[in-house]
Design brief:
The complex is a heterodimer. Helices cover about 50% and strands about 15% of the residues of chain A. Chain A is of the alpha+beta class. Chain A has 3 domains: about 110 residues, Acyl-CoA dehydrogenase/oxidase, N-terminal domain (Butyryl-Coa Dehydrogenase, subunit A, domain 1, Orthogonal Bundle); about 80 residues, Butyryl-CoA Dehydrogenase, subunit A, domain 2 (Beta Barrel); about 120 residues, Butyryl-CoA Dehydrogenase, subunit A, domain 3 (Up-down Bundle). The radius of gyration of chain B is 21 Å and the shape is globular. Classes of the chains: A alpha+beta, B alpha+beta. At the A-B interface, α9, α10 and α11 of A face α8, α9 and α12 of B.
Chain lengths: ~425, ~400
């Protein structure tokens, strides 16, 4: 560090920088480096307190099984998806480039998203939401529609729903009464599901974050990576290994002592304001353990999260397709639109084919999940396709625009960066 | 309500088809791969049974064809009909053996063409006929508009002249649906299909091909020399509508492509199941929860293959479901065919690689499936033709623009 500083000082003192007009960019670099190193306490946050007493936890019933193959969304479902689609086109897409540059969603966007009721769909009526039954398919369609606008902002919008869905699915009556009212109110708290860690070949079933039993409850130690809206989040659900017996989930309020946040910008998803969550001797009450620490709960959470990422991949891949079609039809080369060449046209065809395939596999997994059927296989296949074909589509999107795809005048380079998140990230979403 | 499970009511049919594939096809699969051109006589009795299945109206397996508007059409709700169950049955049968399904009496692609475009009188007249399909010529394959075979009206008969190659079941079938031009100066709009029955003077089977795979199925070269057929054997309308162009005969493809995709799904599933068994014996099993990159390389490869299989499977069901619900399905039929065709080749070849000598030798059927697979990415429109169709639809281009 000392040597670095010395070099920096020397650099700052030279007049060469001004002469070649490089001072601005270099200063920006330095400021980003500082920002990366800055660690702050978790958001101050509100006090979560159980306002009412529930007789027992409220859980949505599984969706019915009609016994028929059907690809048509229900009327109400279609209405929700259309509304969210409009929101994504009007609010997310235009704001995406700036959010990407500024590493933060634009002011007011998230409260407008909350007003849209994205979170409410997954919360049962008796807890103040609008859900009547498990709605994984609807949530997948919503995620897809949002990611068609922008994947980073979609993650920012959906992050609190992951926490509320986890509470609805696995919270006991006390946990539901304490935390869920805030998610159906006017001021939905920023919240995040933190599963990811900094490790090559990371396996969510083997977290390095440790939870130790204490006389009062638990103590958590570890670092979680790429947590959306980490700095402003008031509530986290964190995975940690419970005394060597495997992963369990804990509710962590941001104001708890030992919680610190550090910005952690990445290649993409920059609009989601990703950060690193440090847990240093964080002491939690016994009531912080979610779902009784059961292995089934955790496994289902990992599967659902992967489904969520597959849904986002479908939305962004569709954005790529919708963008390249008019481009290759308008772009002229050798006296005709480049789409008249098979080398170009076949790439577009393959985007269409692989996108439709991965979308159907994702929907099958979602439908099985909401009907309470086993869906481990289907979700694994959806994740595989979303990872491989999603990235292939992201890459083709840039390639088809050539040099124009490489510059920020077009969104395809951002989609390329965002689509690489699929297959890397675990947790975060919970459809 | 979105649900992508095969319909419950198709369960019995799928189970029957599976039993037949396991008990009838699999035991003779290797035998007829070796005895190319020998007639699989075991199939005769079984064919009668299949006729019963298809006659039930629930659809069955094989090329019973895809026909719109032959059910009530009153319900506006979601329909799971004959197209979907035919596709499901075909998958099961081809899990048994794709070449034997292609050799099933009365299940030829010609039957699919008749079922798709014939009028009611023709449907009745040709019922029970085993019909092959003759499109390709020595000088034209994918470019079916370049067909040189001709059909000239002479009194109440058409006079057919030309040579056809790659005719599946061309020797064994009772009849052949032949594509020929009424007027070569009028281009593709003049191409019509004709039913030519065996024994018609001037119709000759020249020879049978020796092939890479699907050896149980005979592939014939046919010659027509002043072959006269009644004019009522022209399928569809005899008018040359240059505006409507190729639509009439090409419509057949919208209906047969999901079936060929289904064949590919069946073969791919057979290879995947066998490979899973072999890998398990070698101590490798796939864990759907553990990250693929942390598993055995063979397990990770398997996951990738299974993912492609699943996408192809669901695209195939989608295209059949669209036909059941009277939604235009040309785009989706081509998507399904493209994805299933390339996936089955990739999957079966990779399975041979994963199984090593167990896969490569003739002891098991893996090597056979990987030979059978290749044709599925070629006939009823090659991979490249499917990509062309998909690209034209997505880009909104005519065939004159995107060639």
């Amino acid at each position: 560090m000392g040597v670095g500083l010395a070099a920096l000082t020397k650099l700052a003192g030279t007049r060469t920088l001004d002469r070649v007009g490089l001072r601005g960019p270099v200063e920006n670099l330095v400021s980003a480096a500082t920002r990366n190193g800055f660690r702050a306490a978790g958001a101050a946050g509100r006090t979560f307190k159980a306002a009412q007493r529930l007789g027992g936890p409220a859980r949505p019933a599984p969706a019915p099984d009609t016994g028929l193959f059907d690809l048509a969304p229900g009327e109400e479902q279609q209405m929700i998806v259309d509304t969210v689609g409009e929101f994504a086109a009007e609010q997310l897409r235009p704001a995406a480039a700036e959010a990407d540059a500024k590493l933060a969603p634009p002011d007011g966007l998230l409260s407008r998203a909350a007003e849209l009721g994205v979170t409410l769909v997954g919360i049962p009526e008796e807890l103040g939401g609008i859900g009547t039954e498990r709605s994984v398919v609807t949530n997948v369609l919503v995620g897809e529609a949002l990611a068609h606008g922008d994947m980073g902002l979609a993650v920012a919008v959906l992050a609190p729903s992951a926490v509320s869905t986890a509470l609805v699915q696995w919270g006991d009556e006390h946990q539901q009464a304490t935390y869920l009212p805030a998610f159906v109110g006017d001021n939905v708290p920023a919240a995040a599901l933190a599963v990811q860690e900094r490790k090559a070949l990371y396996d969510p079933f083997k977290p390095a974050t440790r939870a130790r039993r204490t006389p009062k409850g638990y103590q958590l130690d570890g670092v979680k990576s790429l947590v959306p809206r980490a700095a402003e989040a008031e509530l986290f659900i964190v995975s940690a290994d419970l005394e060597g017996r495997g992963p369990a989930l804990f509710i962590v309020e941001s104001s708890t002592a030992g919680v610190t946040i550090e910005p952690e910008p990445a290649m993409g998803l920059r609009g989601a304001a990703t950060g690193r969550l440090h847990l240093d001797k964080v002491s939690l009450p016994g009531s912080a353990l979610l779902g009784g620490g059961s292995a089934e709960t955790f496994t289902e959470l990992v599967r659902l999260s992967r489904l969520g990422w597959a849904a986002l991949a479908c939305g962004t891949a569709k954005a790529v397709l919708d963008y390249v079609v008019p481009y290759v039809n308008e772009r002229q080369a050798f006296g005709e639109p480049i789409s008249h060449r098979q080398g170009v046209a076949f790439q577009v065809a393959d985007i269409g084919i692989e996108l439709e395939g991965m979308r159907l596999v994702t929907l099958r997994a979602a439908a099985r999940a909401e009907q309470g059927k086993p869906f481990a296989r289907e979700v694994a296949l959806a994740r595989k396709l979303a990872t491989d074909k999603g990235m292939q589509i992201g890459s083709a999107g840039v390639q088809l625009l050539g040099g124009h795809g490489f510059v920020k005048e077009h969104p395809v380079e951002r989609w390329y960066r965002d689509l690489r998140a699929i297959g890397v990230l675990e947790g975060v979403l919970l459809p | 309500m979105i649900n992508l499970e095969p319909p419950k009511k198709a369960g019995a049919l799928v189970n029957q088809a599976y039993q037949a594939a396991a008990e009838v096809f699999r035991p003779i699969s290797r035998k007829y791969d070796r005895a190319e051109h020998a007639y699989p006589s075991e199939l005769d009795m079984f064919a009668a049974l299949l006729d019963g299945l298809n006659g039930s109206g629930e659809g069955g397996a094989g090329a019973s064809g895809v026909r719109r508007g032959d059910d009530d059409g009153k319900s506006n709700g979601n329909r799971n009909g004959g197209n979907l169950s035919t596709v499901l049955g075909t998958i099961e049968m081809c899990w048994g053996d794709v070449a034997l399904l292609l050799s099933m009496p009365r299940q030829g692609l010609g039957n699919a063409a008749i079922a798709s475009v014939a009028n009611d009188e023709q449907l009745e007249r040709f019922a029970g006929l085993w019909a092959a399909m003759a499109i390709t010529e020595p000088g034209c394959g994918s470019d079916s508009a370049a067909i040189t075979a001709t059909a000239e009206l002479d009194g109440d008969e058409y006079v057919l002249n030309g040579e056809k190659i790659f005719v599946t079941a061309g020797q064994r079938a009772d009849a052949v649906v032949v594509w020929a031009s009424l007027d070569r100066s009028k281009g593709r709009a003049a191409i019509k299909s004709f039913v030519v029955e065996k024994g018609t003077p001037g119709f000759e089977v020249v020879r049978l091909e020796h092939k890479l795979g699907i050896r149980a199925s005979d592939t014939a070269v046919l010659r027509f020399e002043n072959c006269r057929v009644p004019k009522e054997n022209l399928l569809g309308t005899p008018e040359i509508d240059t505006k409507k162009g190729f639509a009439g005969v090409m419509q057949t493809f919208d209906n047969t492509r999901p079936l060929v995709a289904a064949m590919a799904i069946g073969v791919a599933r057979a290879a995947l199941e066998e490979t899973a068994r072999i890998l398990a014996e070698a101590g490798v099993t796939v864990d759907y929860d553990k990250p693929a990159n942390s598993q055995h390389a063979a397990a990770a490869a398997y996951l990738q293959l299974e993912a492609d299989y699943e996408a192809a499977y669901l695209l195939t069901l989608e295209s059949a479901w669209m036909a059941d619900n009277r939604k235009p399905n040309s785009l989706h039929a081509s998507m399904a065919k493209a994805k299933a065709g390339r996936s089955v080749v990739d999957i079966t070849l990779r399975c041979v690689e994963l199984a090593g000598t167990l896969g490569y030798t003739e002891d098991l059927l893996l090597e056979k499936w990987s030979r059978d697979a290749k044709i599925l990415d070629i006939f009823e429109g090659t991979q490249q033709i499917q990509q062309l169709i998909v690209a034209r639809k997505l880009l909104g281009k005519a065939s004159a623009e995107l060639k």
